[in-house]
């Protein structure tokens, strides 16, 4: 499996908390470390995927809560 595909598959298996923790670690590394352009691009891409995953988890939770409240 290609590296990018592995990352997406890995993200899909993550909990919301795991994804947020990784986003926070990426942000810390961006603030505290000197990053090459390549590393910066990789970290920003990874963070973007993680953010999308978190948003999807939140939308699903919101839908689940709305269903429960309708019952």
Question: What does this molecule look like?
Answer:
With 71 residues, the chain is mainly alpha-helical. The chain has one domain (15-70). The chain has helices at 3-12, 16-32, 37-70. It contains three helices and no strands.
> Uncertain runs with pLDDT below 50, 5 residues or more?
none
What is the 3D form?
elongated
Termini Cα gap: 43 Å
Alpha-beta classification: mainly alpha
Compressed to H and E, one letter per element, the order equals: HHH
**How many beta strands in the DSSP annotation?**
0
State which percent range the strand residues make up. Answer: under 5%
User: How large is the count of helical segments?
Assistant: 3
Major sheet details: none
Q: What's the overall average pLDDT, rounded? A: 88
Radius of gyration: 15 Å
Can you give the helix content as a percent range? over 70%
What's the number of structural domains? 1
Keyphrases for this structure?
71 residues, 86% helix, single chain, mainly alpha
SSE map:
Layout: H1 3-12, H2 16-32, H3 37-70
Helix pairs in contact: 1-3, 2-3
Brief rundown of the structure:
The protein is an all-alpha fold and 71 residues long.
């Amino acid at each position: 499996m290609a590296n990018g595909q592995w990352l997406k598959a890995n993200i899909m298996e993550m909990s919301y908390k795991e994804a947020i923790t990784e986003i926070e670690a990426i942000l810390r590394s961006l603030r505290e470390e000197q990053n090459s352009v390549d590393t910066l691009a990789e970290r920003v891409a990874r963070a973007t995927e993680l953010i999308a995953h978190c948003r999807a988890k939140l939308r699903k939770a919101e839908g689940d809560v709305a269903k429960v409240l309708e019952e």
